[in-house]
Amino acid sequence: MKKPFLLLVFAILLFSCTEKTIQTQYPNIILILSDDQGWGDLSYHGNTNLSTPNIDELAKTGVTFDRFYVCPVCSPTRAELLTGRYHVRSGVYSTSAGGERLDLDETTIAEVFKKAGYKTAAYGKWHNGMQAPYHPNSRGFDDFYGFCSGHWGNYYSPMLEHNGEIVKGNGFIIDNLTQHGLDFITNNKANPFFLYLPFNTPHSPMQAPEKFWNKYKNKNLQMFHRDTTREDVLFTKAALAMCENIDWNVGRIANKIKELGLADNTIVLYLSDNGPNSFRWNDGMKGKKGSTDEGGVRSPMIIKWKGTLPAGKEITTIAAGIDLLPTLTDLAGLDNQTDKELDGVSLKPLLLKENPDWDERIIFTHWRGKTSLRSQKFRLDDKNHLYNMETDPGQYSDVAAKFPGIYDELILEKVKWETEVVSELNQNANRPFTIGHPSLTFTQIPARDGIAYGNIKRSNKFPNSTFYTNWVNTNDSITFNAEVLTSGVYQVELFYTCPEKDIGSTVQLQFNQSVFEFKITEAFDSPLKNDKDIYPRMEGYVKEFKRVNLGTVNLQKGNGLLTLKATNIPGSQVMDFRLLLFKKL
């Protein structure tokens, strides 16, 4: 009797140990994405204006891709990294006002790894939808800290969110986001984890910690944009100071991996979301952020997996952001588990083999009606000019007449891709902003997503972190195209400012048959935060807003206009309005 029992126990223990061994074999993944950092904004690419020793070390000990392509701007690149598919397939057509949202029938890389047992987190700039089910917590990330809009107005202890709840940041934003990443790594060192760090610099506003800016404010630069008349040196210095801050934080991550003994089982990736956000040194490439030319879409790309991927290898084969999902699932030994066909391919053969069998391919770039194609040797730009990128990387000479066969072939490829792929882009500006999805307790309805009527003005033409002001008339209103997904009682909080002399306005909040009235009874007058910028910003300045609990409202499931309208204004204005926060009770 004892022998069969002991054999059974031994078999159970052996099975458990085997399962544990298999589980711990999954590599951890840390994906670091910078924002508006050009290919040339790194010292390992030859820019002597700055020093990025930690990213340089990552490149020396990892694998670099010399020709790696992303999108011209932020939200499309993020969509492609998350899905492995061209962004035009996934409903992303803008960088604000709802056009940045990733279609709900897309599967994200976080969902794939979470399904495989990974712990998942994202800390930083999401930019693919704010309200659940577009929110990162609804797209496979267990933990999210940062902001969901495209740009943020202040980088020093700003208003952020943690899993939907509004919180206050702690110090300079990149340092703060990195600290959350370090804590996540430490807390999950015994589990496989997927950590996404979408940093938001050197995107404007141009703010950098003093110790980094001090290095640059009196520095004489040595390397410049190919057309020096287009470069603003002050902006360049600010961007490079911000890049050095990123590098310092990459060093913090590398040190934590080493300290915890995770280096042999952790894949680290580093890239940017588009070209540089100004004309500055970029190895003579044409174009910057927003352009479909080489300089607008060529990104640094490093991947390191100590002991598995060869150190110091450089890959000259073209690759793209759409390749990351299939590559990482392949390296981890996972089925990508997506329902849709991927546009990206696994780069694993390029990473591990010296001379792999590799099919020639074309990488497409599309933004605001402009399409550019990149083959291994040529670029066909949005105006159908053909460039030999081996002999003319700066795109100076159109060689269509010299290569008529290749030119005709690429023209046909462009027409075919625009017909079959771009045609999938549904620029549905009428998609409502959702309230009360069960995957998230809180729903933000910010000024960004509203439409103002009457005298009300937006604080800046770039809406992402704006507020509404000049609300002076009872005929003025703010509306949101909304959809309540779950009927019930919601707690409503308001973020606003109002000087003492103007308190007392009565405001009505209405959604279909639900009407809720509140009064502005407390003064809070905050100045604009305009003392930290190194360079004058394009975006509007922000300020602190008072948070007040308005009470509860009963909302019924359905579509409609969520409307704010004042019924009584005893002073000169109602308030400056930032956002409403709904909590399902």
TrEMBL record:
It holds the Pfam family Sulfatase. CDD domains: ARS_like (cd16146). InterPro entries: Alkaline_phosphatase_core_sf (IPR017850), Sulfatase (IPR050738), Sulfatase_CS (IPR024607), Sulfatase_N (IPR000917). It comes from the Bacteria. The keyword Coiled coil does not apply. Residues 1-21 form the signal peptide. Keywords: Calcium, Hydrolase, Metal-binding, Signal. The keyword Signal applies. GO terms for molecular function: arylsulfatase activity; metal ion binding. Residues 27-333 form the Sulfatase N-terminal domain. Belongs to the sulfatase family. This is Arylsulfatase. It comes from Draconibacterium aestuarii.
